[in-house]
């Protein structure tokens, strides 16, 4: 009688893994594995000098000298067709605005966060030392005829102005590069606002003998009206590029949100607390959220750190990703004063910025130099097309100066977008900072339709 050879099990239970302590599970992940505090030993991430300064763990006397020296050492050769700001001009731009009541410095950071994923942070100088910040999931819109010309812009913490100089990377925060930087100009929100309707507004129509309000004062007034119109004079963005930001009444509130509840990655059966959008807790069942116990293959992941479960909405819903980008800033160990004031240490929130308020952001096509035209399609439908102003000087409604529209552009994400200061990609910044094994969050795609 032939005896059958027993089949070897290809799966190991979690109990067996824990008991045997398999060394094969020790691997480089991002963020690095951490352990609970035992006998005073804590597994901490070893950060580079720039990451430590960015996190506030290390202080430097001269932020401009520190970051300019770091950026100068990381310069890449000029690539044809890729906009680049001269290093000396970049320093002069910052020196011209930092510490000044008339400063109007802005920066657009590409931030590839391991949890929130790739997003773009628009920061606008609001006083001599600080800037308000908006997290924008897919970058600034660059097609006047796009089906998705609008974006969600979520308020985050007020930053120190020297944060405009940062290019760094770490396992816990991902990579950050300067997508564009320059100066902004606050425009009247509408032609009526610039005319009779604001004749009595002392901030927009100063009395005789009173100095004209600077850009910080205009930004503060527009921010309080919840309607901001900005013209960005940068290096990568085209000439005349104008944005419109609008806060709806549904999103308006005057108090900072409460501390978020602890987000557990793995949940057992039963009832758990879920953080609502308004800061209140709601109860929900977790029986269908518990991850099944599987073999070693279950440890593979597409995001960093791994999370259970990934739903379809996590990858496709813009609102959900905007919440994730804003929530990633607020950790459980964050200082209570930072949360209460919505400003990082050293920054001043004198403009009334509220954490996680959602604004609508879009490109102002008229003030950017486009003209609306109607055309009949082959199917017989009349459609609206936004075109650039003609070379003969035909003016679009509301267009001032030399704004003539711009060629369509698309924000391509971490794999294609270069730093306007150093010319680096996100992967090159990770390599320069010694970050090995970083696994970015997936499911991000550029808006091309």
From TrEMBL:
UniProt cross-references to Pfam families, sorted A to Z: LigD_N
Domain DNA ligase D 3'-phosphoesterase: 109-243
Domain of life: Eukaryota
UniProt biased composition (Basic and acidic residues): 248-258
UniProt region (Disordered), positions on chain: 190-215, 248-324
InterPro entries assigned: LigD_PE_domain
Protein's UniProt name: DNA ligase D 3'-phosphoesterase domain-containing protein
